[in-house]
């Protein structure tokens, strides 16, 4: 599952983005990857581990909702269970 959110800047800056990716790990758990930064610039990557898929999906939805409240717009969603 992958979500891409973008915030349009004021002025001449590049837009900021947040990419949330949920994927299974090799030990049966789940990993939520959060990549944030400016388009065309540096980004940071944060990784959160979860034991089961429902808790990982709950964290993904909470991260998405937090970014939507900050003014980001959902630009892209991919995955059979991608939350809208």
UniProtKB/TrEMBL annotation:
Superkingdom per UniProt: Bacteria
CDD domains: WGR_MMR_like (cd07996)
InterPro entries cross-referenced by the UniProt entry: YehF/YfeS-like_WGR
Name the UniProt record assigns to this protein: WGR domain-containing protein
Lineage: Bacteria, Pseudomonadati, Pseudomonadota, Gammaproteobacteria, Lysobacterales
């Amino acid at each position: 599952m992958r979500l891409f959110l973008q915030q349009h800047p004021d002025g001449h800056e590049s837009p900021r983005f947040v990419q949330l990716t949920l994927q299974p790990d090799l030990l049966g758990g789940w990993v939520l990857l959060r990549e944030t930064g400016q388009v065309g610039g540096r980004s940071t990557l944060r990784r959160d581990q979860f034991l089961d898929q429902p808790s990982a999906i709950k964290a993904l939805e909470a991260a998405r909702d937090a970014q939507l409240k900050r003014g980001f717009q959902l630009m892209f969603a991919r995955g059979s269970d991608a939350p809208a």
